[in-house]
From TrEMBL:
Pfam families, per the entry: BLUF
Identification of the protein by name: FAD-dependent sensor of blue light
Domain BLUF span(s) in chain numbering: 4-99
UniProt GO MF annotations: blue light photoreceptor activity; FAD binding
Gene source species: Enterovirga rhinocerotis
Domain of life assignment: Bacteria
Lineage: Bacteria, Pseudomonadati, Pseudomonadota, Alphaproteobacteria, Hyphomicrobiales
InterPro entries tied to this protein: Acylphosphatase-like_dom_sf, BLUF_domain
Length: 144
């Protein structure tokens, strides 16, 4: 695709504490994401960790701008920090309308009861490093 762009951001989770509230929020985010992104030819991956979301979105520039506009208005998170928005030569998540790569981390947190359990903090990462982390987690998840 000639006009392929990639966007990387992270944000602070604002969903009320508790595993049920989180499960419900993540299920509803993924349901809307998969429906809309399949329609708009957007692909990517979403990670939840240490009280943060991190997400990669790939697609036509206008499609990415539209979805990111909606995402920024969403009250389930805040302090949305854009790390990268640039042309890309190919899709890294071609088969994922929105892959969720934080499931294992999410499980660990549920049972340990601490957001710090994994020690991963996307706010300390560059866009490239965050992108590479999501690609690596997606590959691990595809193998599982
Ligand atoms: C962390 C996070 C990631 C999201 N990712 C997407 C996404 O990739 N695509 C999408 O359409 N909506 C995404 N959403 C949901 C949007 O904010 C919004 O609720 C949704 O697009 C509305 O869709 P609807 O009008 O079809 O219900 C995300 C929300 C959050 C909090």
């Amino acid at each position: 695709m000639a006009d392929l762009y990639r966007l990387v951001y992270y944000s602070r989770n604002r969903v009320a504490d508790g595993p049920e509230a989180l499960d419900t929020a993540i299920s509803s985010i993924l349901e809307a994401s998969r429906r809309n992104n399949a329609r708009d030819n957007v692909t990517g991956a979403l990670m939840f960790n240490s009280g943060c979301f991190a997400q990669v979105l790939e697609g036509r520039r206008e499609a990415i701008e539209d979805v990111f506009e909606r995402i920024q208005q969403d009250e389930r998170h805040g302090d949305v920090s854009l790390l990268a928005f640039e042309p890309a030569s190919r899709r890294a998540f071609a088969n994922w309308s929105m892959g969720f790569v934080g499931a294992s981390v999410h499980e660990t947190m549920r049972y340990s009861g601490t957001a710090e359990a994994s020690g991963f903090d996307p706010s300390r990462m560059t866009g490239d490093a965050l992108f590479e982390t999501l690609v690596r987690l997606a590959i691990e998840e595809e193998k599982a």
